[in-house]
Amino acid sequence: MEKLERSLLEPVGEVNFRSSKWSWDSVLKKFQLKVESFFLIKGYLLLIVGFLLGRALILSTLAPFSLPFFAAVFLIKRDRSPLALVGLVAGAATVSLKNAAFTFLVSILFLVIYRVSEKWIRNELRMIPFFVAIILGLGKLAEAFIISRQLTLYDAMMVGVQASLSFILTLIFLQSIPLLILNKRRQLLKTEEIVCLIIMLASIMTGTIGWKIYDLSLEHIMSRYLVLVFSFIAGATVGSTVGVVTGLIFSLASVSSFYHMSLLAFSGVLGGLLKEGKKIGVAIGLFIATLLIGMYGQEGGSGSLTITLMESAAAIVLFLLTPQLFTSKLAKYIPGTPEYTTEQQKYMRKMRDVTAQRVAQFSSVFHALSNSFSQMETKPNDREDEREMDYFMSHVTEKTCNTCFKKEQCWAKNFNTTYGYLEEIIHEMDQNDGVVSPKLSREWEKHCTRSKRVYEAVGQELTFYQANQKLKKQVQESRKLVADQLLGVSEVMDNFAKEIQRERENHHKQEEQILESIQAFGVQVEHVEIYSLESGNVDIEMSVPFCNGHGECEKLIAPMLSDILGEQIIVTSEECAAYPNGFCHVVFQSSKAYTVETGMAHAAMDGGFVSGDSYSTMELGLGKFAIAISDGMGNGERAHYESKETLQLLQKILQSGIDEKVAIKSVNSILSLRTTDEIFATLDLAMIDLQNASAKFLKIGSTPSFIKRGNKVIKIQASNLPIGILEEFEVDVVSEQLKAGDLLIMMSDGIFEGPKHVENYDLWMKRKIQELQTQDPQEISDLILEEVIRSRDNLIGDDMTIAVAKIKHNTPKWASIPVTKMKKRA
Known about the structure:
Radius of gyration: 45 Å
Number of helices: 28
Oligomer: single chain
Distance between the termini: 61 Å
Strand order of the largest sheet: 7-16-15-12-13
Largest sheet: 5 strands, antiparallel
Strand content: 5-15%
C-alpha cells in the first residue's frame, strides 16, 4: 500500500506550474506557419499583388505593370499564374472595364505567342522581356488607332515608353518575384536584387493611389513605412535609396506626388543617421523630415501640414508595431547589416569547419598508414628461425645428399646427429667468414663422405641468405622511415586543422580601451584593430594621423602598448601617408625575448672560389631561429652541391612544421635513395627558441660546437655518422639552456681539425676561445679562421666554415611609458 501511495504521489512533485500549454511562442509560430502557407504556398499573395499592380498606372494612362507581372509569374511558378491573372483583371476593373479587357487580352495573346514559339525558343529568360515589350507596344498602338482612327507623334512616343517600361519591369519582376514566393530562400541578396525588390514594392504601392482613410492617403502612409523599415535595417544609404526610388515611381504615377520624393529621401537619410536610437530614433528622423519638407515644400496651409504629420504618425505606429522577428529576418539578406555579416560568418565558419574536417581526415589517414607500417616491424620469432633453417638445409641437401649412397644412413637412421652437425657448420661459417673450426671439421669428415661439397654448398647458400637478410633489414628500415615521415605529416596536418578551427576573437572592448588610454595620454589615434592578444603573439593595427617622419609610433605608442599589455610591443610595419592630411597605417606586434646576432667566415680549399661547405641561418615559425653548417664529401663543385642540397631540403622540411628528427631522417633518406653514388654530407644544426633561449643541437657526423659563457667554455658533442651512409640511424639531440651574452661557435672539420702540429684539437680550440677579447660574432669568426690558417703556414688544406651566434636580450630602443592601465586581455 505504501508503494502504491508513493507511486501516485511522486509525479506530483515534478509538475511544472510555470509551463503553459498555450505558450505565446507556440501560438505565434503556428500563426506564422498558417500565414506563410496561405500567402506563399497556396499563392494568394500573388492575387493581392496582382490586384494592386492591375490598378497601377503611369502618367494616368499607361499600364505597363500587368503583363510583365503575369509573364514573370507564368515563367517562375506556372501553377499559380491563374491567381495572378485574376488579381490583375480585378485590379484593372476597378479603374475601368476597358483596362480590364485590355489586361485580359494581352495576357491571352502572350500565352498564345509563347505556346507557338515554345518549340524554337532556347533561352526563355532572354526572350520573355522582348515578347512582353512587343505585345504591349502593339496593344497600345492598336488601342490608340481604335480610339482616334489615326496615329500621332504623341501616340508613337507613348507606345515607345510603354514598351520600354514593360521590358525593364519584366526583368525586375523576374528578379524580385522569387523573393516574395519562395519562403525557404537561403542565398543572400545582391545589391541588384535589393533595388529590384524596392522597385517592385513601390510599384505595388502605386496601386493604392487614391485610397484614403479619414483623409489620410494610404500610399503616403505605406511609402513612409517602407522607408522607415529599410532605414532602420540598413542605415542612411539604403534608406535614402528606397526613398528616392519610391518617390520617383509615385511621381510618375501621379504628378501631384512629386514633392513626396524629397520627403521620402530626406526621411530615409535622417532615419538612417538616427538608427542608433533604435525605432524611436528612426521615427524622430521621419518627423523632422516631415516638418521641414511640409513647411517649405508644400502649399495649402496648416491643414495640409497637419494631414502630412498625421500620415507620418500613422506610418510610425505601423513601424513600432512591426515585430522584431520580421526586421531581423529581412536584415539577414541586406549587405552591410550586422545580421548579414553574421550570416556570412556562419557560412565562412561552416566552410572553415568543413576544410578543417577534411584536413583532419587526411591527418587520420596518414596516421593510420604510419601505424600500419609500424606494425610490420615485428621481430622474427623462433618458429620463423626454425623454418628458415629448414629451408636452408633443404637447399644444401638437395645439392649434396640427394645423390649420395649414404643418404639413407645419414638422414633416416642418424637424423639428429646429421642435422646437429650441419647446423653447427652453418653457424660457424656464418660467423667466421666461411671458416669451420678444426674440431668440427674432423668430426664432420668422419661422418660425411662429401664434406668439401657440403662446405661449398653451404657457402653458396650463405651468400644468398646474407643478401636476403640484408634486403629484409633494408625493407624494415625503409618501412620505419616511411612510418616516421607519415607520422610527421599527420602531425603537421593535425596542427593545421586545429589552426583553421581557431576562430579569431572579437576585441571591441579592448580596442576601445586602448583607444581611450592612448588618446587620454595626448596622442591622437584614428582607428585601432586587434587581431590577436595572445601572449607572445600580439598583433594590432592602427591608423595614426600624419606623423611627418617624427616616429611617434615607435617612440610613444609602442611603449604605451607595452605598458598596457604587460609585454614588449614593437613596430613591425609602418606605411606613412603620402600627403600631410592623410593617415599612417602601423602594425604593432610582440617582440621576442631574445635576439641572435650572427657572424660567418669561410674559405675554400687552396683559396678556391667553390667551397664544399655550406651554411645557412633560418627564421622558422613560432619564434625559432636555426643555424646550420653542412660539409659535403671531398671538395669542389660536387661537395658544394651535396652540402647545399642538404641544407635546402632541411630548410624546406623544417619550415613546413615537421619535427627536427623526422626532418633530418627525411633528408637522409632522400639523399641515400635518389642515386646509387655514395653521397655523404655532415650536418651541424642548432635550433634556438627566441622566447626562452633554449637550444637543441643535432649533429650528424659533424665536429663539436662550443658555448662561451664568460670565461667558461662548454663543449657540445654528439656521435652520428654522416648523412647518406646509413639508410636508418637514430638522431641524438643535445639540449642546452642558453643565456643572454652566450657565444655559440659552430664549425666544420676544416676549422676544428685544421691546426697543424696539434695533438688535442679540443684543448687548442677551447684555449683560443677563452683568449678572445671581443664579443662581436663577426670578429670572432674572422679571428678563429685567421688563426687556423696561420697555424698551417698560411695554407688552406680543406674547406673551412665557422659560424658564431651571440644571444642577447631583446631590448627595444624605446622603453615602456606608464599609462592608465586597462584590464589585461579582459
